[in-house]
Specification:
ten-stranded mixed β-sheet; 15% helix; alpha+beta; 3 helices; elongated; three-stranded mixed β-sheet; single chain
Length: 216
């Protein structure tokens, strides 16, 4: 995929991959309907195992320079960068077998809502996150669970490459609950404005998002 481009792959067993921009993958599928799909990834992709997947073996085996990631009936995101791989689990469970480690400590599992970064020498970072903030580019869905406006503003800046200004510091701590479905930044802005009952809008040059009243 090129700059700003995304592509989706859907398989006959219900599995799905959405490839983010500036990324590449190759995949191999077996002759059997439910045989594991072997994927080699550069960049970032979102994976859904689908509802028709056999529980005997994983739908995907994602091969990175740092290890192999296998799903266990799940939805997850994989990002591959130089020197590290990252897994963010939205639903289900995944297991990871690290490339350079052998024996009982070579495998670990990632649970729902966890983000794990790992390299050839082991786990680099592990924390609980709002997984939908990371996967929303592929799903068009964000789940808020007592999410503060400040955290939402940081997400917008990272995801859409715009600046966000919270015009009243008192707004930063407002918490949001519920879910938002969107197809564009404009749609997301309108939905959040409706949820928090506060004006949220873009500047005329589309480079800035204002949360709260702002005098142009």
């Amino acid at each position: 995929t090129g700059e700003g481009e995304q592509k989706s792959l859907k398989f006959s067993n219900g599995a799905k991959i959405v490839l983010n921009s500036n990324s590449a993958l190759t995949y191999t599928i077996g002759l059997l309907h439910d045989e594991t799909i072997q994927v080699t990834l550069e960049g970032e992709a979102y994976f859904e195992a689908g509802g028709n997947i056999s529980k005997v073996q994983p739908a995907f085996a994602v091969i990175t320079p740092d290890g192999v990631i296998e799903d266990i009936g799940t939805k997850f995101l994989v990002s591959v960068e130089e020197g590290r791989s990252r897994v963010i689990l939205q639903d289900g469970l995944v297991r990871v077998e690290q490339e350079s480690r052998k024996g009982s400590d070579s495998e670990f599992r990632v649970a729902k809502g966890e983000m794990v970064e790992f390299g050839r020498d082991g786990i680099l970072k592990k924390e609980n996150v709002n997984s939908t903030f990371y996967t929303s580019w592929a799903t068009g869905f964000i789940q808020f669970n007592q999410t503060e406006i400040q955290a939402f503003a940081e997400y917008i800046e990272q995801r859409f490459d715009v600046q966000v200004q919270i015009t009243d510091p008192a707004l930063a701590g407002i918490e949001m609950d519920g879910a938002v479905y969107f197809r564009s930044l404009e749609g997301l802005v309108r939905s959040v404005s409706d949820v928090i009952k506060v004006p949220v809008y873009q500047s005329k040059d589309r480079k800035t998002i204002y949360i709260g009243n702002h005098q142009q």
